[in-house]
């Protein structure tokens, strides 16, 4: 039983390391860059060991690393794709790129589905920001779809499908 926990811990440590490496690379930094710009708080060799899952990182150190990368601490931790309580709005490599979606506002006004009122208020806010008062159709951008996904309590990809099943999406 104890050995099983160690295997899981090792796997989790590697996944934490993968996240650390991903964030560092997204910031365009090498291990040496991190060491130099952190005034050697994060040594390249130690950070590399964290990234390979060979060394466990403490919570206080993880917090300091998150502050250094200017990201929330939870972004340095791996996500559990099987946890239904986790709503992941990050784009995944290999997922189909989602462009814009045109929403039928007339049809939305007639819906009595849960979330329809909140969705309408959000889309009205977009109309005000854009000064786009056509009133019939509104094209939402990919970034808007993230907020819509939150409103519909789903992922970005599923939000597009949900808009289609609600009869609101004209294109995608």
Give an overview in words.
The chain has 172 residues and is mainly α. It has 2 domains: 2-76, lambda repressor-like DNA-binding domains (434 Repressor (Amino-terminal Domain), Orthogonal Bundle); 101-171, Arc Repressor Mutant, subunit A. It is built from 8 helices and 3 strands, in the order H-H-H-H-E-H-H-E-H-H-E. The protein has helices at 2-26, 31-37, 44-52, 59-69, 105-110, 116-130, 142-151, 156-165, and strands at residues 101-104, 137-140, 169-171. The longest helix has 25 residues, at 2-26.
In short:
This protein has 172 residues and is mainly alpha-helical. The protein has 2 domains: 2-76, lambda repressor-like DNA-binding domains (434 Repressor (Amino-terminal Domain)); 101-171, Orthogonal Bundle (Arc Repressor Mutant, subunit A), CATH 1.10.10.1930.
Count the domains: 2
Provide the low-confidence segments as ranges: 1-7, 91-97
The CATH topology name of the largest domain reads: 434 Repressor (Amino-terminal Domain)
Number of helices: 8
Sheet with the most strands, sense and barrel status: 3 strands, antiparallel
Structural class: mainly alpha
Share of residues in strands: 5-15%
- Specify the CATH architecture of the largest domain: Orthogonal Bundle
How many whole angstroms does the radius of gyration measure?
A: 21 Å
Please report the first level of CATH classification, the CATH class of the largest domain.
Mainly Alpha
H/E element order: HHHHEHHEHHE
Strand order of the largest sheet: 2-1-3
What secondary-structure arrangement, pairings included, does this model have?
Blueprint: H1 2-26, H2 31-37, H3 44-52, H4 59-69, E1 101-104, H5 105-110, H6 116-130, E2 137-140, H7 142-151, H8 156-165, E3 169-171
Antiparallel strand pairs: 1-2, 1-3
């Amino acid at each position: 039983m104890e050995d099983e926990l160690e295997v899981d811990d090792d796997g989790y440590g590697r996944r934490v390391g993968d996240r650390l490496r991903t964030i560092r690379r997204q910031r365009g930094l090498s291990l040496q860059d991190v060491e130099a710009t952190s005034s050697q708080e994060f040594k390249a060799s130690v950070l590399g060991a964290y990234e390979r899952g060979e060394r466990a990182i403490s919570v206080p150190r993880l917090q300091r690393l998150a502050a250094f990368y200017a990201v929330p601490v939870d972004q340095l931790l791996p996500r559990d794709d099987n946890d239904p309580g986790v709503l992941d709005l990050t784009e995944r490599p290999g997922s189909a790129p989602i462009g814009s979606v045109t929403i039928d506002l007339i049809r939305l006004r007639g819906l009595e589905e849960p979330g329809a009122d909140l969705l309408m208020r959000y889309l009205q806010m977009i109309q005000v920001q854009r000064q786009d008062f056509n009133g019939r159709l509104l094209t939402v951008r990919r970034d808007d779809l993230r907020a819509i996904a939150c409103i519909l309590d789903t992922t970005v990809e599923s939000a597009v499908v949900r808009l289609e099943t609600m009869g609101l999406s004209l294109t995608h």
